Request: fold
Amino acid sequence: MKATQCIFLLIFLEVVKSQLPQVIPAKWDVMYGKETGKNMSLTIFRFKVEEKYSVARIIMSCNESTEHNPLLAVFREKLAVLSLQVPLIVDNYEYSQVARTLCPFTEYKEGEAFTVEVTSAQPVRYNFRAELVKNFFLYNNGKRLVTASASEPVYLRYDIPDDVDSVAVHVDSNSTTCMTVSVQKIGCPVFDLPDNVNSMGLHQTMTTSATIPVEKSRMSSFYVVFVVNTNDDLCSEIMSIKPNLFDYTIPIVFWACVLLLVTIVVFVYHYFDGIWERRFLSRAYTHLEDDAQEERIRDFYDFKRMSEDDDLKDYDLLTDCKDMMVVRAKASLTVADLSMTPYELREQKYDVYKIALAIIGIFYNITVLQLIISKAGSLRQSGDLDECTFNFQCARPLWYFVAFNNVVSNGGYVYFGLLIIVMNYCRERSFRRLFAVQPALAERYGLPQHSGLMTAIGLAVIMEGISSATYHVCPNNINYQFDTALMYVIGMLGKLKIWSLRHPDMVVSAYHAFGFLGIFLMAAIAGVYVHNMIFWIMFSIIYIGSMMLISLEFYFKGIWTLNIRELRNSVRMAWASSRRLSCIMPAYKARFFVILMLNIVNTAVVVYGLEAHPKDFLSFLLIPFIGNLFIYIIYYILMKMIYREKIPKRALALLFAAVISWTCAGILFNQRVSDWSKMPAISRELNKPCIFLNFYDNHDIWHLSSAFAIFFSFTAINVIDDDLMFVVRNTIRVF
Reply:
């Protein structure tokens, strides 16, 4: 029994002995070739610190260790604990020799020791050496030769002299290998690995040369760190992504076929439209001559009757009044009353819109493209996917794009914008041929035809496609304005186009319109970063004030002035001459109704903003811009019906298609798959898989459907009054 107990005791002592660390009094600059023990036992090297502020560098190599059985080393100092493993694995590269410079021995006294602990899961042979770094300090105008590699970074120290305010650290290399040079504050640990060297201080990538200016006010002493990168990606152009193109071909070809089908339909439409035009010209001359003869006879007898009327003999007869204040004060305005300016002058005024927008678009989109291209490159280099709020569950990378599907789906805006311009040009040519044969049509019949605003709308839609595509290269709060700025332009131009149909002389100058929009955009950008109550109160006052001015212009048709004295006198005279408060009853009830409705809607939007303070301020402002446009279109259609004006069948078909497209677009827009206004992790909770052809997500289909909706809407607006072509202009009502 005693013999058995002795055996167990000996076994226990042997096990305990095998687990005790092997302590080796080590010497500097001596290479040690050792083998790690079994069962993760430690080998401890003890080094005496011979001099305070000295710096140690450790070099370890091992050819037998692997990723699953690495050699582990821990360096214990008073200020920090540093560890490394062999092989060192960085960006899928393995290095069997590793060297690290330790923090200076600032807290040590002579004779004290620091330790290096080495172990591994399975025994491996390794080589180990510790040396003291000589010439650790840099000096002014002094050159130092340094050798570094991806697994053996190096850093040196520099103290800026008292009489120097700033210095420049200049580095030259005889190799084109990509390296990062970093200037970091004195501290421990030092960030000297490829995956953390950019986390502290100033840094530059270099191949053969780098210079880093350092101000003494920022860092009076610093480390200069040299880290060789594992590859040259940071110093050279990034290779484009080349996935299996077959997966991308079918979705893109499908979308191209849809656009081709639309193109065929448009050309067929214009072909039959040309046949209709020739038939129309053959009948137009007789029709117009008969109307002109009847009008001349009617004017003659009206003038004769007024001249013979005894009650009118003492008054001057204004049979052809051209005074704007007199004409626009009539209870019932006609288009002839608001189209007295010569056609050429009006045409020049409308053409300024397309010219100004083209110039703005060139300068705006150049800077946008430059910013986004550089952003795409930095995104791939940094690998920080929190920078951009993609729908990662349906992100299809190609070339330099993380989500190529989000970019290419904006092609519909560009295509339909071009189609609007081409169709508008063909329409303009058709009318010019018609007016050349029958000049009376341009002067006295139908609505005045001006193509400048519709061409500007086409340009705005093209620019929206380009801006939206650039935004989707890296969606975030900084560049979301690129996606919305042109939406504001489209909304503004759409309202001006409808207004110009029956108010040809009253369209605001393009300079004033774009100037107002520029101020509006500045407020929109401020709303992205400022969310306090003071901003919302100021915005609400300015917004409601602007709505009041626009309402007055719409109601009085430009015959009012912002003069307090005249306004007070007008109110006093109206009150004195009125009976039973009749002065408060609107003279133009239809105008008053639509103004009241628009102001209620816009006030509700402002009240909602004051209450909710939405963070996505740019999208919030789209509500009144697009909402007012929709309300104005509905008002225009209802007024045509009230005055018993026919709506052409093609306009009805286009409006029906627009309603369907806008409904689909609205549903898809509200089914968000990402949100830049939320934190990246919260935004990714909205991510959803692709819903069409395993390529397009909800937002991509929103792009496609809204492009169709914009095309149908503005094409309908362009042809909605074609029924008035043979109607005398002084009988067409203004509303």
